[in-house]
Design the sequence.
């Protein structure tokens, strides 16, 4: 994410923002802030384009996705270069987090969306099933607004756009102003792939542009970002009766059980904490390790963390923080922990050898519950390790904060790991790996508590861009309804007796749940 500076412009002209690299503090480029009128114009275009797009079969929509896939595979180095300028992470992480995931999403939804969203026949039970047959059809909502974040600006702009488009919608996409060029690649990709004009409208700008998008009258909002902004988005959508998906932050825990493979657990904790310099919503923020294996685990983590390379170019493992605000927040959390008695095993300070926003990969122990690194989302390369008596204490502490996005459990007994996972108040859990469920496209991904509302990905996420419309057909051409009036007290008495049989006897209850075989 670039550092943003407003440029002075003549009165009456559009505002402009200068983006500066957080890695070397050099200018990246300038974007113009789009106005409320621009957003309204985009919505008008999108509504016109969406009607024809929704009328196309899934196979025709899929052709655009597959053309986009071909372009991305061929031009991946060009895309990596743009993303790397704004997001100072290692090239390997751009490749994995953005390009690989984008290719997978384009191909998966091109192949599977038609199957997931095809009309679904439902067998109805009991009397209703005798009289009625039902089909659920998945109708596109219309125009979807997408506001995407800065930490994974390409994939988190592209993935919801793919799903919304394949479901038959048009999209108004506003990337974070700090990663405007990475998010803008989505528009460039689909334009080159031949997506009809108006179906994807980019609305670049700042919070004023985002507010205009919230108020313009889209049919659904998809937001990924901070809890605070997410609450505002949710309130705006509620006032307008617009459905929304909010994928927000987390304070994601790791449990290292007494029987865990400690080499693997240590490597997993390192990956979970320091991938993307700790700046991804599913990243690890707390590590709870059973006391009987804590010394050995901490030793292994310390050794691995001390070898991580931090730089802005060439081969390195951990990049810069994306924003100056995030840089200051991470410093504050670590300083707060140290003042309250935390012990620094690795890092714990700003990297003095780098020009940009670099905070050294940090490992802390002697953690207490009153520290900010436990109570608040850090979103940086900081690993607090907490000793616990047993797995039961770890579960209790994992569930304490008002967040619930991801978690991971390390144990050789995967059955026990599954039992622990079910006790965690989180949207998803990985056993014997760092959190990666967002990348498993078939599975729904979303948070609990302050970590969000709704789920993305898989059938659940894709259908969220549709209205599920049940259509019932009477098997007898409406004859029973034709004879409904006049009403009769005698008929009421007979019907009550029938109800007594249907739900007052064990045989009747069996009949009440029967479904016709056709």
Sequence:
């Amino acid at each position: 994410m670039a550092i943003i500076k407003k440029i002075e412009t003549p009165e009456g002209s559009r505002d402009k923002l200068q983006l500066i690299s957080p890695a070397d503090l050099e200018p990246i480029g300038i974007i113009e802030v789009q106005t409320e009128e621009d957003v309204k114009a985009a919505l008008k275009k999108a509504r016109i384009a969406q009607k024809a797009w929704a009328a196309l079969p899934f196979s025709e929509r899929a052709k655009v996705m597959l053309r986009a896939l071909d372009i991305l595979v061929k031009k991946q180095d060009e895309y990596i270069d743009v993303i790397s300028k704004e997001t100072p992470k290692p090239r390997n992480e751009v490749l994995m987090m953005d390009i690989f995931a984008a290719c997978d999403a384009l191909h998966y939804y091109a192949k599977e969306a038609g199957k997931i969203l095809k009309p679904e026949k439902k067998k109805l039970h009991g009397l209703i099933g005798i009289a009625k047959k039902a089909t659920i059809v998945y109708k596109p909502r219309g125009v979807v607004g997408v506001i995407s974040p800065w930490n994974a600006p390409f994939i988190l702009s592209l993935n919801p756009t793919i799903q919304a488009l394949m479901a038959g919608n048009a999209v108004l996409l506003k990337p974070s102003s700090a990663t405007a060029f990475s998010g803008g690649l989505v528009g460039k990709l689909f334009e080159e792939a031949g997506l009809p004009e108006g179906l994807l409208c980019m609305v670049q700008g700042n919070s004023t542009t985002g507010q205009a998008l919230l108020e313009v009258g889209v049919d659904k909002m998809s937001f990924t970002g901070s809890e605070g902004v997410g609450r505002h988005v949710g309130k705006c959508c509620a006032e307008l009766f617009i459905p929304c998906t909010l994928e927000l932050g987390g304070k994601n825990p790791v449990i290292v059980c007494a029987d865990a493979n400690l080499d693997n657990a240590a490597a997993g904790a390192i990956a979970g904490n320091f991938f993307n310099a700790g700046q991804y919503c599913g990243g690890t923020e707390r590590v709870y390790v059973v006391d009987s294996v804590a010394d050995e685990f901490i030793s292994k983590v310390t050794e691995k963390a001390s070898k991580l390379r931090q730089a802005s170019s060439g081969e390195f493992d951990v990049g810069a923080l994306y924003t100056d605000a995030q840089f200051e927040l991470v410093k504050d959390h670590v300083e707060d922990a140290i003042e309250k008695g935390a012990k620094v095993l690795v890092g714990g300070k700003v990297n003095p050898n780098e020009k940009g926003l670099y905070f050294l990969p940090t490992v802390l122990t002697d953690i207490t519950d009153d520290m900010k690194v436990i109570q608040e989302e850090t979103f940086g390369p900081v690993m607090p390790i907490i000793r616990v008596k047993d797995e039961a204490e770890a579960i209790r502490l994992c569930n304490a904060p008002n967040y619930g996005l991801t978690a991971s459990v390390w144990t050789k007994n995967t059955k026990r790991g599954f039992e622990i996972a079910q006790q965690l108040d989180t949207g998803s859990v990985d056993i014997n790996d760092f959190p990666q469920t967002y990348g498993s496209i078939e599975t729904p991904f979303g948070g609990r508590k302050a970590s969000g509302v709704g789920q993305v990905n898989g059938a659940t996420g894709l259908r969220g861009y549709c209205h599920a419309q049940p259509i019932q057909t009477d098997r007898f051409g409406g004859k029973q309804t034709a004879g409904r009036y006049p009403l009769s007290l005698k008929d009421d008495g007979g019907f009550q007796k029938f109800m007594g049989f249907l739900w007052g006897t064990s045989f009747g209850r069996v009949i009440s749940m029967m479904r016709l075989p056709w």
Summary: The mean pLDDT is 95.
